[in-house]
């Protein structure tokens, strides 16, 4: 399990008409991706904008999953698998404070600082263990996915300190999920420090949003 700095890239959004479905928990109308097997190649790169793996580390994870008897997904089965995993994850994260977003055939969990870690700490908050237990249960139910855990910090403090803290927080989350039985070889763990804010660091509310851990769940495909 490696800790390295993730790189950022801009990824074009998918532009394809699809059937829609209403999310049972939020009422949001969103695409149904079951019929989108033709987009395997495009969706694989359309998640966060993180280049979280080199070809070698990705190949290593792929080979490890195959060695563990976890076959790759193909065609329409990719969207169907991720549809079902999304529904299960949204149900598990309901009322937890964790955001669940669908991006192409990937899922993104956004775990904000107010439910994950105290300020300047990489020790998981007691209440956060229950949330991670629920997440690990879904991840174990759907093993044909890669799990990229990326930590983020606000701009308070020195850059190098924030980088280390973001890595330590990501490692804490990843290590706990592994302790709950999620296959170690599915993981990539990285820290972004303060380089990828989602809100202004000029306010306490914005800094709290920026102190977060994100988990990107990507399908293990045959291509």
UniProtKB/TrEMBL annotation:
Residues 1-20 form the signal peptide. Residues 104-221 form the OmpA-like domain. InterPro entries: Bact_OuterMem_StrucFunc, Gly-zipper, OMP_bac, OmpA-like, OmpA-like_sf. Keywords: Cell outer membrane, Membrane, Signal. It is found in: Cell outer membrane. GO terms for cellular component: cell outer membrane. The keyword Phosphoprotein does not apply. This is Outer membrane protein OmpA. It comes from Maricaulis salignorans.
């Amino acid at each position: 399990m490696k800790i390295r700095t993730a790189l950022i890239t801009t990824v074009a959004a998918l532009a394809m008409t699809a059937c829609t479905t209403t999310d049972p928990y939020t009422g949001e109308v969103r695409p149904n991706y079951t019929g989108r097997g033709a987009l395997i190649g495009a969706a694989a790169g359309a998640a966060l904008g993180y280049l979280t793996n080199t070809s070698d580390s990705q190949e290593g994870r792929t080979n490890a999953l195959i060695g563990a008897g976890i076959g790759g997904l193909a065609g329409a089965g990719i969207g169907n698998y991720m549809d079902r995993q999304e529904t299960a994850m949204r149900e598990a994260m309901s009322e937890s404070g964790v955001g669940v977003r669908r991006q192409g055939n990937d899922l993104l969990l956004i775990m904000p600082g107010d439910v994950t870690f105290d300020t300047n700490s990489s020790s998981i908050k007691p209440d956060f263990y229950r949330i991670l237990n629920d997440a690990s249960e879904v991840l174990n139910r759907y093993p044909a996915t890669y799990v990229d855990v990326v930590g983020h910090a606000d701009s308070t403090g020195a850059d190098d300190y924030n980088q280390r803290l973001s890595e330590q927080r990501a490692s804490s989350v990843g290590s706990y999920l592994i302790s709950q039985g999620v296959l170690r070889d599915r993981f990539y763990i990285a820290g972004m420090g303060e380089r990828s804010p989602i809100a202004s660091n000029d306010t306490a509310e914005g800094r709290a949003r920026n102190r977060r851990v994100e988990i990107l769940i990507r399908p293990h495909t045959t291509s």
